[in-house]
Amino acid sequence: MRVQRTILIMTLAAILHVPVSCQSSPATEISGEYTLKAQSVQINGVIINIADWPGCSVSVTALDGDMASVSIDSLLPGIDTLTVSADVSRLHGSSYSFATAAPCNVKDREISVSGTVNKGNLSLSITDRYGTPATGRWKVAVSGDGLAAISISFSSPLVTEIPLGDGSSVPVEDALAIVNAYIRSLATPGLEDLEYLEFSSAGYVNIECHGLSGSDLEPLAKDVIQYWTDPADSRLHLYLRRTITDGLGMEISPLDAALAYRQGNGNLTVTLDRQTIAPWTGELLKTIQGFTYDDYIQAGSPLGEITEEQFRQYSTMASLFVTSLSIPGTELNVSAELAPAS
Questions:
Q1: Among residues 74, 184, 201, 260, which one has the fewest Cβ atoms lying within 10 Å of its Cβ?
Q2: Does some domain include residue 209?
Q3: HSE (side-chain half, CA atoms, 13 Å) at 132
Q4: Domain that holds residue 46
Q5: Does residue 173 fall inside a structural domain?
Q6: Residue-wise burial string across 147-166, b where 16 or more C-beta atoms lie within 10 A, e elsewhere
C-alpha cells in the first residue's frame, strides 16, 4: 500500500509540474529589443511624432517571473536612457501589460511608465511631470531704477574697442554701458505686455502676451518649445524638435539652447553665455558674412541710415565678435532676472 501511495503521489506531482515547466513567465515572454513605431508612444496623454526622436527604442529584460527592467533610449528630452523596473502581467494569449509601481525621480522630474506588448508590438505610455527650479510662471523682474532686470557683459582679448560711425571708436566697457542702458529702456515698455512666461509641469514653454495673436511668433507660443533642466551643471535647455526646425528652414536641426540658470531670493536668473552659443558660431558667422548692404536696406535699415562703408565696418566688427566667442579668454553673458508672475 505504501508503494502504491508513493507512486500515486509522484504521478500527480509529475502531472502538476508539466504545465509549469512548459509555460514561460510573463517577463520572459516580453523580453527583447523593440523599435518604436508611429502612433505607438504617448507622453502625458499626447501621441508623439516618432520622427522627432530618431533611434529611439525600448529594451525589456526579465528580472523574475513578473518583474522586468525596461530601458527607454533617445525618447525623453534631456535623458539619454531611462531604466525602470516594471510589473508584468499576462492579459490574454500573446498580449501583456507592464507598469512601474511608483514614479522614478530623474533630473527634477517624476516619470511613470506603462505599456503593452501585443504579438510582438510594443505600445508605450509615459507620464513625465516636471518640478524643476524653472517650473512655474514668470515675468521679467524690474530693478530699483524701474527698468527691466536685463544685463549684457562682454570681454575678449580679440575685441577691445567698438568702432563708431564717424571713424572713431570707444572702449568695449563704455560701449556696453550705452548698450545696456539702451536695451533696458527699449525692453521695459514692451515687457508690460507680457502676462507670463511659463515653464509648464508637462515640459513646455508657454508665452501669454498681449499682441502676440496673429504674429509670426504665435505658433511657437504654446506647447511647442520644450525645456528641461540639468541640475548637474545648472543648465536650462530650450529645445525645438527636428520636424519643427526643419519646417522653419533652420540650419540647426534640432535646436538645443543650453542657458545657465541660478536661483536667489525667489527669483530665477537665466543667462545666455559662450556655452549656449558655441554650437551656433559657425552658422552665425556664415549669416553675417552673407548679409549685404542691400539686404540691410531691404530690412528697413534697423540701425538707421548708414553708408556702405559704415555698414562694412559694422559687419567686420560683428564677424570679429562672433569669432572671438571661440577663443579662450572671451566672456559673454546676456542675463535676465525672472520674478514669479502674480
A1: 74
A2: yes
A3: 31
A4: 25-130
A5: yes
A6: bbbbbeebebeebeebeeee
**CA distances (Å), origin 125, targets 27, 48, 111, 144:** 18, 10, 11, 48
CB 222 within 8 A of CB 198: no
Q: Give the per-residue pLDDT at 153.
A: 95
Strand-pair partners of 150: 336
Residue 334 sits in the same domain as residue 312: yes
Examine residue 56 and state whether it is found in any structural domain, yes or no.
Answer: yes
Task: Report d(CA 70, CA 61) in Å as an integer.
Answer: 7
Angle at which helix 308-324 crosses helix 281-290, to 10 degrees, equals 170
Asked whether residue 126 falls in the same domain as residue 154, the answer is no
* Closest CA relative to residue 228, chosen from 195, 249, 199: 199
Given a contact cutoff of 8 angstroms between Cβ atoms, the answer to whether 275 and 258 are in contact is yes
Q: Which of 110, 130, 150 is the last residue of a domain?
A: 130
- Closest to 203 (Cα-Cα) out of 284, 134, 143: 134
Task: Quote the Cα angle for 70-73-75, to 5°.
Answer: 110
Within a domain: residue 4?
no
Co-location of 74 and 198 in the same domain: no
Q: Is the peptide bond before 254 cis (omega within 30 degrees of 0)?
A: yes
- Residues 172, 89: one domain? no
Phi and psi at 32, nearest 5°, equal: 150, -175
**CA torsion through residues 208, 214, 215, 221, sign:** positive
pTM, to two decimals: 0.85
Are 197 and 317 members of one domain? yes
Residue 192, C-beta contacts closer than 8 angstroms, at least 6 positions apart: none
- State pLDDT tens for residues 332-341: 999 999 999 9
Q: How far apart are CA 7 and CA 83, in angstroms?
A: 49
Measure Cα distances from 256 to 158, 227, 244, 283 in Å: 27, 9, 12, 14
Q: What confidence tier does 302 reach under pLDDT thresholds 50, 70, 90? A: confident
Q: 5-19, 63-77, 190-204, 318-332: which range is least confident on average? A: 5-19
Q: Per the structure block, which three cell numbers stand in for 1?
A: 500500500
Query: CB within 8 A of 141, min separation 6: which ones?
Result: 148, 149, 267, 337, 338, 339
